[in-house]
Amino acid sequence: MRVLSEKRGRVTTIVINRPEVKNAVDRYTAEELADAFRAFEADEEARVAVLAGADGCFCAGADLKALAGGVIHRLEEEGDGPMGPTRMRLNKPVIAAIAGHAVAGGLELAIWCDLRVAEKGAVLGMFDRRWGVPMVDGCTVRLPRLIGLSMAMDLILTGRPVEAEEAFRMGLVNRLVEPGAARAEAEALAGQLCGFPWRCLLSDRRSTYEAWDLPFEAAMRNEFRLGLKTMESGETLEGAARFTGGAGRHGSFDLD
What we know:
This protein is α/β, with parallel strands linked by helices.
């Protein structure tokens, strides 16, 4: 199978499984990736997904050999992106576990995720700058929002490789871990997110994304409306009661 899906409790790990081509994505892999994330979204028990690549490599981008051989990616303006899930706006978080290379379309998959955990020595970059392959899976939209226009232009125009350490300093990577640890660390982080009051986490995540599309005053009103729904659900009062009972004191994240 080109894409594997493994579920442990409330965490679903989706793995690009084409190690013989450094997990490059052809049309069929893109379709399987999109289907895997649709299944995750529809699974009411699943809360957070991790996206990883098999055998120590995240994703080397689109499979250019398959493309040259006539296996053309989906290129319609509506629906799934050429790399699969990159046009989806999921209601639940996704964390990228980056090892080896996350380049070209692989970088676009990584920045589609909410958070990125990368191994030291991993390499990110828009390597398809060399081949005349345009960015059509969200890089020019998401990258400036993540790291700012100037840094994004540097990576987009030059296509230069960026090691994980530099990516961490510029905010492109959220967690830096030892080689071989990206998936385990990403799954641990996913488990931590699963343990927080869930309605509130999803509400704040939604407000953060929707704010990009709204003027400041409208974004503030949207944040308030979403937050009010959380309060009205009873989740906030439950949290206050647990705090009163002694949970979470002195900044502890042990909420039991």
